[in-house]
């Protein structure tokens, strides 16, 4: 039975939709990348801003939402002086100290 027929039977009082669901193949859901509960929010951005964020995320090899989350966490850390710094940023800062730019 296809989905359309099962839906018609379900709305007519039959229980074939439940049977169709029971017959479906099990699907593995993706494993969350964190144990911290997450909340999804929608953010409206101008297209050019989004493209810049996407390019920055691509350059770092991470997803857009991951980069946005990192930026938000860093901004909040600045507010309460509990700065969060990426290891890559720390390494760049240390490397620049040992090889100062010509002034």
- Residue runs with pLDDT of under 50 for 5 or more positions: none
CATH class placement: Mainly Alpha
Radius of gyration: 24 Å
Shape label: elongated
Total count of helical runs of at least 4 residues: 5
How many β strands by DSSP? 0
Describe the structure.
- The chain is mainly alpha-helical and 103 residues long.
- It has one domain: Arc Repressor Mutant (Orthogonal Bundle).
- It contains five helices and no strands.
- Helix 1 runs antiparallel to helix 2 and helix 3 crosses helix 4.
- The longest helix is centred in the C-terminal third of the chain and has 17 residues.
- The mean pLDDT is 80.
- This is Ribbon-helix-helix protein, copG family.
- It comes from Micromonospora phaseoli.
Strand-helix topology:
Blueprint: H1 3-11, H2 16-23, H3 47-60, H4 64-80, H5 87-98
Helix pairs in contact: 1-2, 3-4
Brief summary of the model shown:
The protein has 103 residues and is mostly helical. It is 58% helix and 0% strand.
């Amino acid at each position: 039975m296809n989905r359309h027929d099962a839906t018609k039977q379900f709305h007519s009082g039959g229980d074939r939709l439940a049977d169709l669901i029971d017959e479906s193949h099990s699907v593995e859901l993706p494993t969350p990348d964190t144990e911290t509960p997450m909340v999804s929010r929608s953010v409206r951005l101008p297209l050019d801003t989004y493209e810049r964020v996407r390019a920055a995320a691509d350059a770092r090899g991470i997803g857009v939402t991951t980069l946005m989350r990192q930026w938000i966490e860093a901004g909040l850390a600045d507010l309460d002086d509990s700065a969060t710094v990426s290891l890559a940023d720390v390494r760049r800062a240390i490397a620049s100290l040992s090889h100062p730019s010509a002034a």
